[in-house]
Amino acid sequence: MAVLPVAPVARLIRMAGAKRVSEDASIELASILENYGIEIAKEAIDWANHAKRKTVRAEDIKEAAKRVRPLKPGE
Question: Transcription factor CBF/NF-Y/archaeal histone domain: which residues (predicted)?
Fold first, then answer.
């Protein structure tokens, strides 16, 4: 089930410079962003647990984003 709505993802693509965006392109980018976001969130949870906290903080997300490599399409 998709978490990110397609319309905002299409807006992101248009903000990047596209004049037109297919629904398939928006769906594919949403899927990639969701998978990447989940990997960052998992790493951030590890950071919070290591600090003996239950709450994931912004600094956990920032550190996790530095450590998680971007996913390649299809991963």
Answer: 4-64
Supply 49's token pair: 């647990």
**CATH classification at residue 25:** 1.10.20.10
Has residue 62 been placed in a domain?
yes
Three-state DSSP at 16 gives: coil
Q: What is the per-residue pLDDT across 35-67, written as a single tens digit (0 to 9) for each?
A: 999 999 999 999 999 999 999 999 999 999 999
Helices and strands per DSSP (H, E), number in the chain = 3, 0
Residue 13 has pLDDT above 90, yes or no: yes
How many domains would you assign to the chain? Answer: 1
Answer yes or no: is pLDDT of 73 > 70. Answer: no
The residue range of the domain holding 60 is 6-67
DSSP state of 17: T
Q: Is residue 36 part of a domain?
A: yes
